[in-house]
Amino acid sequence: MPDVPILYIGMKPSPSREKIRQAEIDANLKIKTFLANEKNTVFVDVMPLMLKDGKTQPELYLGDMLHMKKAGYAIWEKAIKKYLIKS
């Protein structure tokens, strides 16, 4: 289905996964590079939007430090809204 638009949201910087942050950054870069050569694709990099001075913001996450609170999803919403089809 080559005409179906794809919006890919990159990996987010969860406090519970800080030990693998560099692997997430590397994977995001590989995915972004791949999608840059594909038709009808957009890569949305939420990682820098969710960091403050290069550090995670625990206040964006639930107690498990993996799943986001409403504030985290608000960041995503702002990042992807411009790519969504308006009806």
Write a concise keyword list for the protein shown above.
single chain, 87 residues, alpha+beta, Rossmann fold, two-stranded parallel sheet, two-stranded antiparallel sheet, 3 helices, 4 strands, globular
Protein architecture, described:
By secondary structure, the chain is of the alpha+beta class. It has one domain: Rossmann fold (3-Layer(aba) Sandwich), CATH 3.40.50. Helices cover 36% and strands 14% of the residues. The protein contains three helices and four strands; from the N terminus they run βαβαββα. The protein has helices spanning 21-36, 47-50, 70-80; strands spanning 6-9, 41-44, 51-52, 55-56.
Topology:
Blueprint: E1 6-9, H1 21-36, E2 41-44, H2 47-50, E3 51-52, E4 55-56, H3 70-80
Parallel strand pairs: 1-2
Antiparallel strand pairs: 3-4
The biggest sheet, with number of strands, parallel, antiparallel or mixed sense and barrel status, is:
2 strands, parallel
Strand order of the largest sheet: 1-2
Number of strands: 4
CATH topology: Rossmann fold
Helix content: 25-40%
Shape annotation? globular
What is the rounded distance between the termini?
22 Å
Q: Mean of residue pLDDT?
A: 95
- Please identify the structural class as seen in this structure: alpha+beta
